[in-house]
Automatic annotation (TrEMBL):
Lineage summary: Bacteria, Pseudomonadati, Bacteroidota, Cytophagia, Cytophagales
Keyword tags: DNA-binding, Restriction system
Basic residues bias spans: 348-362
Coiled coil start-end: none
Source organism (scientific name): Microscilla marina ATCC 23134
Sequence segments annotated as region (Disordered): 81-100, 340-362
GO biological process: DNA restriction-modification system
Family, as annotated: Belongs to the type-I restriction system S methylase family.
Record GO terms (molecular function): DNA binding
Keyword DNA-binding: yes
Protein name stated in the entry: Type I restriction-modification system specificity subunit
Length: 362
């Protein structure tokens, strides 16, 4: 009975592994333009990667101008209050990262016409590393407060919070507050733990072991959260990550990460193509997990009945008693005791070692 159950569990686990392989294959095709090949052939007005990059530059410049305007207002308010507290910090101009070299481009997969490889530092509004550990203290953690997201809370593209900090602490460190459509990424240990910040997580706090990326409006955050968790990116981050005992990311590594630049309408189409395929995967995977849980419950039930002597029916038990080698438990125990006594009698007796008495020195 248990052997049949084990065979069924093995089949479910094999199917689970095959699903993971299929999921990775779907994402790889999506990120290389294969899923939208037919859709793309029907389009006539998609922008080129070069044109898109110019639009991104313009948006980044406008974003910085707005930051400067907001900063000027904050400085006026600070001066009006008698310059109480620290003066608001002036926003830094977006840093331009050197483009990918010909040698670097040769090492990357080929992309469809209209797509391009760019370094991530030139495509984002902001990359923010989580706070220093010294900025958070034991008394800042509370049972009811603002959830804080560290790498251990990110799994399979979803966020599972388990820790909170006070609102006062969050308000004192506004640069680490997460906004909707940010992408949070674990920056320590296992690479590839990425998740999209939805309306549910809006206002939550980026933990010490995490960082977040805020793309410009020309990027579908749902798609790029998946891209930042793909194997190519994981391998790149593991290779470039600093640290002897665990991988640790810094701004330099992330700014230089090669990322696909895709026309926004095609980004939306890619998301639809992925979801239509992976939604079926999710349903099958849920069925597999249910099957594995039921199998484990059945195993425990079988073992419990076996140990309580209730596994066999009366007819099966009667058949067993008719076998030549059948004996009740009391007889088996008596045989065991007899064999044990016989073995002990045959075993050579150990003579205790004599300990020499130490002579006292007079």
């Amino acid at each position: 009975m248990l052997s049949e159950l084990d065979a069924g569990i093995a089949s479910l686990k094999k199917a689970e592994t095959q699903l993971k392989t299929y999921r990775q294959a779907v994402l790889k095709k999506a990120f290389e333009g294969e899923l939208t090949k037919g859709w793309r052939a029907q389009q006539s007005d998609l922008p080129t990667a070069e044109a898109l990059l110019e639009q991104i530059k313009e948006e980044r410049a406008q974003h910085h101008a707005q930051q400067l305007a907001d900063w000027a207002q904050a400085v006026k308010a600070w001066e009006a209050k008698g310059k109480e507290g620290k003066k608001p910090a002036k926003p830094k101009k977006p840093k331009e990262v050197a483009p990918l070299s010909e040698e670097e481009l040769k090492q990357l997969p080929n992309l469809p016409e209209g797509w391009g490889w760019m370094k991530m530092g030139n495509l984002v509004k902001k990359i923010q590393i989580g706070p220093f550990g010294s900025q958070l203290h034991k008394h800042d953690y509370v049972e009811q407060g603002i959830p804080i997201i560290n790498p251990k809370h990110i799994k399979d593209g979803y966020i599972f919070p388990s820790e909170c900090i006070t609102k006062a602490k969050v308000d004192s460190l506004p640069q680490y507050i997460l906004n909707m459509n940010d992408i949070i990424l674990g920056r320590r240990g296992e690479m590839g733990r990425a998740a999209l910040i939805s309306s549910k997580e809006n206002g939550w706090f980026c933990g010490t072991g995490s960082l977040y990326i805020r793309f410009t409006n020309f990027f579908e955050a749902k798609l790029y959260a998946l891209i930042l968790g793909e194997r190519r990116v994981i391998h790149y981050l593991e290779k470039k990550g600093s640290g002897t005992t665990m991988t640790n990311l810094n701004l330099g590594i992330l700014n230089n990460l090669p990322i696909q630049v895709i026309p926004l309408p095609e980004q939306h189409q890619i998301v639809q193509e992925i979801e239509s395929r992976l939604s079926v995967c999710d349903q099958v995977e849920a069925s597999i997990q249910t099957g594995l849980a039921k199998a484990e419950a059945l195993r425990q039930s079988i073992l419990k009945k076996a140990f309580e002597g209730r596994l066999l029916s009366d007819a099966e038990l009667a058949t067993c008693k008719n076998e030549k080698d059948w004996a009740p438990a009391s007889t088996l125990l008596a045989q065991i005791e007899a064999e044990k006594a016989e073995a002990e009698a045959k075993a050579p007796k150990k003579t205790p070692k004599r300990t020499k008495k130490k002579k006292s020195v007079k």
